[in-house]
Structure formats: C-alpha cells, structure tokens
Write a structure and sequence with these properties.
6-stranded parallel sheet, Rossmann fold, binds nicotinamide-adenine-dinucleotide, globular, 16 strands, 2 domains
Length: 422
C-alpha cells in the first residue's frame, strides 16, 4: 500500500518537487500525495492543479500547516518552504509520528539542524535531506573515478562560483536576508559544500574572508525558463518593491583543509558584475579532474594525467572505474545500472529525475528503517562547511568543522537563531 505524503512549500522548488513526484509515480507506486500546503493559497492551488492534471488525483489544499497535520492521515512530509521553516515543520511532523524529507540546507542554522536530528532520533523516524546534485550519475562517476585513484591521491581543489550581480536570485527576497536564508554562501554554497565532502571526505579547518558587496538587490523580469517554476509564486517580503535591502553576506572566499590533507579554495560570490564563472577542479598526485556539472547531462568529468596531453572524457572514463561499478537500483531505474559518462535530457527532465530518485529512497527508508544517503549528519556537515566560511569571516580566525557542527562557534548564526527562535 502506498504511503501518504504531503508537500509543504509550493513555491519554485515546491513546484519542481511536484514534477519530481510525477516522475517518481511513472516508475514507482510507493507514494501518494494527498495534500499540499502553502501560506500563499494561489501557489498551493497551482501545485494542486498540476498534480491533478498529471496524477489524476487532486491533493487537498491547505494554507495552515498545523491544520493539515491534524486533519490528514499522513505517513511522510516533504518540506520545501524557504529555509527558516524547515526545523519547525520537521519537529512538528516527528512529534506527529511522520518521516520527513526536507530540502537543503537541512535547516536555517546548525542549531536548527541539531534540533531536527535530535527530534528524528527521539521519534525513531527518518530524516532525509533532499540534496540532489550528488545523485546525478555524472557525479556518481566522478566519485567512483576519485575513489579508484584515477587522478591519484587528491591534493588540492579549486571550487569557484561567481555571478549574481545585483539581481535577487529567482526574484526571492528571502535569499538576500540573513534571518530568512543565511545568505547565498549558504543557499547556493551548500550544494558545492556537499559535493566537496562527497568527493574529498571530511573537512577539518576552514579560514575565510567574507563581505557584503551589494546592499540593494533588484527584482528583474524573469526569463521564460525561470517563469515556468517561479511564475506562480508571489513574494511575501517587500513584494511591491523592486529594490530589496540586503543584510546577508553575499561573498565568501575560503580555504579548506580536509582530513586527507587536501587543501581546497572554496569561493562563492553572488555579487560579481558582468561576469558569470564557475570552475571546479581536483588535483591529484597523478593528474587533474574537472568536476562535472550536475543536471547538465553533457558536462561530465574530464581527466588529464601528468605527462599526457590528452583530455580523457566521455566513455573513455568508464574503463577507469572498477568493472563491477553499478548504480544503486533506484538510480538504475532511470539511468540504467552501468555507469554513464553523459545522458540526453534537458535540464528540467534531469532535475525532476533526480528528485524522483530522492522520493523513492525516502519511501524505502521509511519502510525499512534504513538511513538515507544524505541523513541529518551528512546534511549538517555540508551546512557546517558553508557556515564555516561565514563564521571564520565573522571572527577573523580559522574555525574547525567540528566547532561549527556542535555550535561552539556560532557568531554569525546567533542573530539568525534569535530572530527565528531556534
Ligand atoms: N535542491 C535545489 O536544487 C534547490 C533549488 C531551489 C531551492 N531549494 C530549496 O528549497 C527551499 C524553497 O526554495 P524556493 O526557491 O522554492 O523558495 P520560494 O520562496 O519560491 O518557495 C517557498 C514557499 O514556501 C512558502 N512558505 C513559507 N512559509 C510558509 C509557512 N509557514 N507555511 C506554508 N508555506 C510557507 C512560501 O509561501 C513559498 O511559496 C529552500 O530551502 C531552498 O534552499 C533547493
């Protein structure tokens, strides 16, 4: 029998989750979406309309989360609200005996994450973090290549993300506000942090310089692609204004030391004008790997070995992983069991396919009691690595990942916790 799930948060990513859910229901029958909730009723109705059109059954629409929790026979909850609500809804759901999947970052701060982890443990229910990038088969292949020593022992990495200008990302004002999202080093940086930990293992010490370079950000006309996902939502913050005041750090320039000894330059800036640039490379004792672009299908890893001019890419990479390397069976349902170096899917299809994989893993864990791949600890480590930049920048000294994880260092996060009563 299918487990009953509800979606709370029907904005841009909530709509994308629904499309992931539709994709999931084409292959699996483990879940039924019986309710959706958003304080913005029009957004919730829009998501319910899309569900009805594709699934043939309309989830019930709620604007009050507690009313939904009290009324519906739910087994699982999918949290896709903006980040500051994740812990409140997760705790209420665990209290009510539900399993929880939440969008990244796990919570608004590490304290929120610890509360969610503790509530999950107390209830004995599953907490899964919907971190989608690492689930891309091109990222799975990159990880298998690194683990198999294709570039030797990783020594250094460069992970640089520059862009943004003075635009509000996705026209969402909460992303520019410290108390609502922590800032872009958290909201966007947490994906990159998760991938660095996935590829290189645990981090130990982090030093960073940080800044706010754009104190005013602007809503801009959305292009057609963005409109597909964010066109139905309205902003609850200064919605009538084009200009929004920014109080969240927009740029972090960090250096990370990993337990393995590897050193990484990790930079995230959302305030770079007239230029968009991203690069990710891992430099090992035998050569260099360019990291793949998740959900692209075509920007796979590229390896160059010392003393060899060739750039090894595409299917030539497949002989560099162990012959018995296979995708897990959920990933295999969408991409096949054998490793792949490319796939032919537009972004939207790749996006919803990775979300479908997350849903099925969540359902299986809820049934079996097994922990998901990105559990509370894995989700918190990625959040801690992102916050480590901001904490180090705040106090002007290196911090350890453990200090940020356990809350010993939390200067930047203190006001966020206070404002959100975490
Ligand atoms: N994994 C990814 O690739 C990815 C991409 C985008 C966003 N996200 C994450 O998804 C989450 C949502 O981001 P978004 O871009 O969809 O933002 P959004 O602002 O478009 O959507 C958030 C929605 O939550 C609703 N909401 C807020 N408080 C609520 C409450 N108390 N009760 C019910 N609904 C409430 C808002 O009305 C809004 O519709 C964030 O945590 C973000 O970091 C992840």
């Amino acid at each position: 029998m299918a487990l009953n799930i509800a979606l709370v948060g029907c904005g841009g990513m909530g709509l994308r989750h629904l499309h992931g859910f539709i994709e999931h229901s084409k292959k699996f029958d483990s879940l039924e979406m019986i309710a959706v909730c958003d304080v913005n009723e029009a957004a919730a109705r829009h998501v319910a309309d899309v569900a009805e059109e594709h699934l043939g059954r309309r989830p019930k629409v709620y604007t009050d989360f507690n009313a939904m929790l009290a009324a519906e026979p739910l087994d699982l909850l999918d949290i896709v609200t903006d980040t500051r609500m994740h812990h409140t809804f997760a705790e209420a759901a665990f209290e009510a005996g539900l399993h929880v999947m939440t969008e990244k970052p796990i919570g608004i701060t590490l304290k929120a994450g610890r509360r969610m982890r503790d509530a999950a443990q107390k209830s004995g229910k599953i907490l899964s973090v919907a971190e989608n990038y690492r689930r891309d088969p091109l990222c799975r292949l990159a990880k298998a290549l690194i683990d198999n020593g294709a570039i030797g022992q990783p020594r250094m990495a460069m992970d640089v993300h520059l862009g943004g200008g003075d635009t509000l990302m996705h026209n969402t004002a909460w992303r520019a506000m410290k108390s609502r999202g922590g800032g872009m080093v958290i909201d966007a940086g947490v994906h990159a942090a998760d991938l660095l930990l996935f590829y290189l293992g645990d981090a130990t010490r982090i030093y960073a310089e940080t800044g706010i370079f754009e104190t005013t950000r602007y809503r801009r006309e959305m292009n057609a692609n963005l409109k597909k996902f964010y066109g139905h939502r309205t902003d609850d913050i200064q919605a009538e204004n084009e200009a929004v005041q920014v109080d969240a750090i927009d740029s972090g320039f960090g250096v990370i030391r990993f337990e393995s000894g590897a050193i990484c330059n990790f930079t995230v800036s959302e305030a770079v004008k007239a230029h968009q640039f991203a690069m990710g490379t891992i430099h090992g004792s035998l050569g260099t790997m360019t990291m793949p672009g998740p959900r692209s299908g075509v920007n796979g890893a590229v390896i160059q070995l010392d003393g060899d001019d060739r750039k090894i890419s595409g299917d030539d990479l497949l002989s560099m992983v162990p012959a018995d390397f296979r995708h897990d069976d959920i990933t295999a349902a969408y991409f096949g069991a054998a490793p792949i170096s490319a796939y032919d899917m537009p972004f939207e299809q790749a996006d919803r396919t990775l979300l479908a994989i997350e849903y099925e893993e969540f359902a299986r864990c809820a049934i079996s009691g097994e922990q998901p791949e990105v559990d509370a600890t894995v989700g918190m480590k990625a959040l801690a690595l992102s916050y480590a930049l901001l904490e180090s920048g705040e106090i002007g000294a290196p911090v350890t990942l453990n200090e940020v994880m356990d809350g010993t260092v939390a200067e930047y996060q203190r006001s966020i916790d206070e404002e959100n009563r975490v």
